[in-house]
Structures are given as structure tokens and as C-alpha cells.
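Below: protein 1.
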Amino acid sequence: MIKFGPAGNCKTFYEDGYKRTIEAPKWLSEHGLDAYEYSFGKGFTLPDDTAVKIGEEMKKYGITVSIHAPYYINFATPTDEMAEKSYYYVIESLRKLRLMGGTQLVVHPASQGKMTREEAVELTKKRLEVLKQKIIENGYDDMYVCLETMGKSAQIGTYEEILDFCKIYDRFLPTFDFGHINALTQGTLKTYDDYKKIIDRSIEVIGLERTKLAHIHFSKIEYGSKGEIKHLTLEDKVYGPDFEPLAKLLKDYDLNCVVICESREYMGRDAMILKNIYQNI
């Protein structure tokens, strides 16, 4: 069953009088949402005991929880020392995710840096092979690392690159960030067929069952010549993309995805809008 929720706590959460993430599951349930993404984007500041308590609340209210790993990860870094730090960030994120009772970890794969794109992609693939072994060695091979499609031209992570990376290990899944894809391709996501091309390609490369488990991020995003500039709310009428054609596709393909809304500041409110669109398609 498809689930909807926000990336973190939105302004509406605080305006409703809530203050702490441990209260988020109750707020989500009250508003008809059933997913939540916790971010370690800027590092690990959440104590283990608090992670466990949050996880207990998520389970109590039937909320599916995912985690976003630190933004510092770069599997195309020129140095092995920095690559080791990226492996650590993934493994530690998986440890925290297990404490919270989730199974899907979102990861930004790499940046191009001064290498050619081909060199950066090949290095990323080699490092992901190493990551696969570390995941197995540390006992996290029952969890999923969801490699995210990226929104800037200097980042590694077109949907084709992500699907290619996912061939390395069956525990690698795509995070289709459709706002990122739209920003990177200068607004090409407009119709049902535009989305269908991506999902059909995923089915071709990694199969239907894994595609059904794919993680989804959705938001409207302002973009320029180099891609993503900033996240917007669903009220934006300029940049897109629109959710309606994707919602129809998700329903037609019976995808069991988690859809995480990353709208600017009002991701919880907009997650409710996304769910309503889906239910009324």
C-alpha cells in the first residue's frame, strides 16, 4: 500500500502546538499521514535512546519511517580516506534506522568534482561494490539503501545512473526524486508518459518487484541552467512538476512506494495534498 508523509516537521506541526519529533507520529496520524523521513543530513545528533523512543511511537501510530543519510557522502571522492567516512555515514545511518524500526535509507551518491563524469560514475560504482560488502559484513543486508536521483548537473545521480548503480546489489533501490529530475532536465516532467518513461525504464533494469519498493521524493523545485536552486511549495505555478500524472501512474502500476513530500517549510501540509490527489485519481 502506498504511503504519504513529510521529510521532517513542517511549520503546520509547530503551529499546531507540537514541539518535538517524538510527537510527530501522533500529529501525522491525526492528519491522515502514514510515513515520515528523519534527516541526518547535517550529522548524527540523535541519541540512541531517543531514536528507540521515536521508533516506538512510529510503530504505535502505524507510521513507516525512513532516514536520510548525511549530505557529506561522496562515493566519487578522490581519496580513500574520505571514502571510508562515506562508508561510515551509511553504516551508522543504517544502525540508527534499525533503532527507529525502518528499512529504507536515502543516500546522495556522489559529486563529480574535477573528474570527468565518466570517471566519477565509474569510481562511484567501485565504491558502491565496497559498500555492498560492508553492509553485508555489518549485518544490515535486510535493509535497503535508496540511492537518490539528484537535481544539479555537478552531482552524480541521473535516473539512468541510479538504476545502473542499483544493478550492483539487490538491496540498492532508487529514490526517485521527481522534483530533482524535473529540475535537472529543465522542466521535462509534464505528462503521464514523461513519468511512465522513467518507471518503465526502472522495471526494465531492476524489475517490477524492486521498482514497486522504490522510494519517492516529491516537491516543486525552482531551477536554473545548472539545475536545482530551491524547493518550493505545491502552490507554485511556474516550475513544477505536477503530481496528478504521477499519481495516476502510481495507481495504474500498483506501486507500493513511500512518497515523501519535501516542499519548502510546509511539507506536512503538502503531503496531505499529495495523498488527497492520489486518492481522488
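Below: protein 2.
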Amino acid sequence: MGHREMRRAKREVTELEELRAIVDAAQTVRVASHDAEGLFIVPMSFGYEVVEGAADGAEPRWTFWLHCAGEGRKSDAWSADPQVALELDVEGGVISGDFSCAYSYAFASIMASGRAVRVTDADEKVRGLNAIMAHMAPGAPVKFQPEAVSVVDVWRIDVDRLTGKRREGMRLG
């Protein structure tokens, strides 16, 4: 199935470095899912990795890393249906105008969709936890006890589509 083009194409962010700068500046990822109770969105701390596309023009591959308790609504929902949507944003402040409807808000944002995969391998869990710490607290000393790694749930979101958007006044990177 094809994807709809962005309505305001002039605001679309396509450069990898600027997309990365938006993700770096975002403090929270909001993950949208659904289960038998309905749709829900949960804000989470995150880490990420991006692998640039091959020389043949392939799109970059984005991976987001999340952690949570081993049981609960998120884990149950993602286990039953791993399809999720992600949203990250960075506030840029009010844009003033000459009249009320001319006011707006500057922002930069990321929208993505992908599949949530529960990570069970201890080394891969540590990789994800390291990515989360690198984003949350760059340069902080990081050490994970094996007991802690064994009880935390780490989820990898394998992104299949990611787009960026910017409203004037927001240039990052």
C-alpha cells in the first residue's frame, strides 16, 4: 500500500542529519497501540539507532529502543499485535502575527510506524539499554547488573516508515 504525500510538503524534513537532530532533541516518544480496550498512547523514554541506507539509495533503517515492566497493558498489547505508531516532537515557541489566526506554533516532529519486538537475548537487551541511556543521559557512566537485565523488558521498534516535519523557526542540527 502506498503512502499519502505530506500535505505541506515544504515543511517536510528529508535530510538524515536533520531527522537525527529532531530525534536527538526529543525527550519523549509517544507510542500508539491498540488492544481489546481500544486505542491508547503512552509516553516513554527511548534510545535509537539509525543505519544509513546503502549506496543504492536505500532508506535509512531506524530502530527505537524502549524498556518497561514485564507485564501490563503495553506488553500485552504489543505481544498480541506488534504494529505501533510513534510520535516525537520538539517545541519551538509561539509565532506571532498581525491578527489572531496568523498566530501559530513552531515545532519539529517525527512520525513513524513499525513493529514492536520483545528482546529476549541478554546482549541485545544491554545494547538497547545502552542506547536508551545514551539518549537520556549522554556521557553518564552505564553499567547493568545481570539480575536487572534479566527482569526488565526491552522492546525494539523496527521502523518501516519515518517522516519528519518542521514549522518555521525550527532548524536543528
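Strands lie at 12-13, 29-35, 38-44, 47-51, 61-68, 83-95, 104-119, 153-166.
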